[in-house]
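Form P-L/3: holo structure prediction, ligand guanosine-5'-diphosphate.
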Amino acid sequence: MGITDKFNELISNLLNSLEEIQAAAIVDRNGLIIFSKIKGMDKEDDKIGTVTATFDSFIERIKKDFGAATNFVNVTLVDENKYLFATAGLEAILTVIADKFISDNSLKVFGSHVANKIKLILEGEELINLDIPPIIPILSNMREGKLPEGNFSVKVIVLGAPGVGKTSLIRRFVDNKFAENGYVSTIGVDISRKEVIINKNCIINESIWDIGGQAQETAPYRKRFYQGANFVFLVFDITRKSTFAKIQRWIEDLDNSSQQLSFILIANKTDLDNSEVTLEEIKQKAEELSCPYLLCSAKTGNNVIGAFKYAALKFLEQY
Ligand code: GDP
Ligand code: MG
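OUTPUT (holo model):
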């Protein structure tokens, strides 16, 4: 897939995800439009002129106000519209035009997410998920009074074949560390704790259960580990297809212990380029399991906090 196709898919997903968003453009730092898309373009032709003119006038402003800034996310209200400007790396800026009724927070959360994807595309990163992940709509509602108040406890269990990086993902999240030589294989279970502070009135204490890869064979113990769990990480290593194929077995194992659980499929080690699993296969598996997926790297930290934060926010959804 070429860069333009990637931009097209990404921006289409953005336009489709929020009714209030009308158009988006990717502009380089000199104000040249690299890519633009307007919702329902073929139907309302007069809109194109208006939006293009608006982009033009704002490009002058981008150059003037933000020319030297390396990083910004800015929302401006002008007449009937809100405009978002967000840096997409050093090369580009994302501009989004939305209806004035959109919340600033929504526009910023969706915009920053997409801007970061644009940066990765421009940097030539291959394995990029162009869908808007489910955490984004949840995050965009965060500051709108919909969150419950209090201290909550969430039990997260991390499952997957030996060596996929379960312990590494947890250590990255809890201590922000990564050990190149890995960790001693977990025997039984290791429990770590970390607070996820959503805001000062809403704190989630996660207890994270690192279930040893051997658990699949040590049947008598594992049911006890699963008890009371709220959330499950299903981890595989993109460089070993066998670990991807085994995901199903973990689900079946959990099914037997019948409880209400949310899942996320974690494709780990995305910093490595010898992947044996395609993005299509990952998407298809996630669809089969009716759960979201995230491309992560415990090594670089990519999406690791996001995954644990998703677990916390998913838990809050029930309130
Ligand atoms: P576990 O058995 O699932 O707990 O796996 P570990 O966390 O012990 O990791 C197994 C090996 O994979 C170790 O050598 C880690 O350093 C390595 N590893 C884990 N996560 C990543 C990652 O995201 N990228 C790379 N390149 N290596 C990783
Ligand atoms: Mg381990």
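COMMENT: Residues 166-167, 183, 185-186, 210 surround magnesium ion (ligand 2) (CB under 6 Å).
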